[in-house]
Amino acid sequence: MREVNEELVVLEEGHVAGVVNACCATGSMAKLN
Amino acid sequence: MELTSYLKIYPCLDKQGRVLAVATRRCAVLELSEGLLERARTNGLTEKERDTLVRLGVLVPDRALEREEVRATFETIGSTSRRFAALVTLTLECNLACGYCFEDPFRGRFVMDDHTAELLILRLKEQMAIGRNVTVDFYGGEALMALPLLKRIAGHLVEAARELGVTFTFNIITNATLLTRQVVQDLLPLGLAAVRATLDGPKDIHDQQRPFVSGKGSFDTIVANVKAVHDLVPVDLGGNYTRDNFRRFPEMLDYLVAEGISPAALKAIGFAPVMPKADGSVSSDLNSACASTDEPWVIEASLFLRQEAITRGFPVPKLRSAACMIEFEHDLVVGYDGSLYKCPAFMGREELRVGSLADGVGDYAASHNLDLWKNDECLECAYLPLCFGGCRFFRLLKTGAMEGVDCRRAYLDEALEQLVRQDLAMGKSAA
Hints:
The complex is a heterodimer of chains A (33) and B (431). With 33 residues, chain A is mostly beta strands. Chain A has strands spanning 2-5, 8-12, 20-21. Chain A is rod-shaped, with a radius of gyration of 15 Å. Among the domains of chain B are: 2-63, no CATH class; 81-311, TIM Barrel (Alpha-Beta Barrel). In chain B, the strands form 3 sheets. Chain B has a 10-stranded mixed β-sheet. Chain B has a 3-stranded antiparallel β-sheet with strand order 2-3-4. In chain B, helix 5 packs parallel to helix 6 and helix 11 packs parallel to helix 14. Chain B is globular. Chains A and B meet through strand 2 and strand 3 of A and strand 4, helix 2, helix 4, strand 7 and strand 8 of B. Strand 2 of chain A pairs antiparallel with strand 4 of chain B, so a sheet runs across the interface.
């Protein structure tokens, strides 16, 4: 968490690395690495 | 500057005048005052505020340009990615007889032969030679029933990667009945990065859903193996639930802890509803299988089980932008016979075969309806980065064709805010 000022707080920066392959059939193996 | 099209705003119920903003392209989460949100809409921000919102994707220079950028997401990934990923089916043989196995319609004693294995190694070396890092997910049947073959393929590839200055790693999707400490120790030098094992809830449920071919339960063997290897290799634990049994899955989590498996030592844990088989049929004793993520019980179950895992300190995959494997040019499924597909659930369907190791990949844009989400409704939907048209297999089951999207709006309307709040709570407990 990072407070920019009292009106704006960053709770989660998120992911820079783009979109992952989230295969429904195998249970989202992309999340392994 | 404009607010991104891919933004969800939720009120902070415990803080009047403040909102939670989720920028779905990178899954950034911010807490803002309503006043600041209004100033963001009217270009009244300070430089520091504006820079932060731009960096996290809440503000964009031009929404029309952003839309075109999103439309080209997978072309951009395809042309810039230095990664190649193959899901390799070593064998369709399995030592378990799970009633719901989606491979049931085409399972059998089919093992990748030497010629196909050599072709696979050759094709993956070609990817390495053009500078791509290669990841293989070994898959089955039960991949570890073909352990010598797995070792041979990985051995060649790890050596080739070293020579060509790229990386090679592999994961194993396994039922974990053969996943001993010795096996893991042997495979680590060959590039083993992680394993995915499956436990379908507490022992009585698991043993009914995932028995050995002999009929004997597999729960104790799997737990013993996970316990023996989880300090050596990252273990991703999955499990398949039905409407009738998902509420009992936390018993299994408690059992793992009691057995000495530290929640934090696992890579991730995540459960999914039992899906219909590849031909659309459902095992008669599992009639509460799921063919859609927007069924109310599935939404309830997914949030409930994620929360139960987090409460016990198990890591769960965080929310992030994701899409079906079909969209990724450099991701392929390799069948045991060298046939190529874009989804493991498509194996055995001749009309969805996209090529072979011998002949390469054909044009599947039309047969797989690649652009199905590139319409105004989807491109203007804040959830698009979390969905990109959803699961093509579900769509195929529902309609008999990959036409139209497997829309996740109903699910995400119900679940996204709770998923985000779960992630935030997990972050706090981890810190």
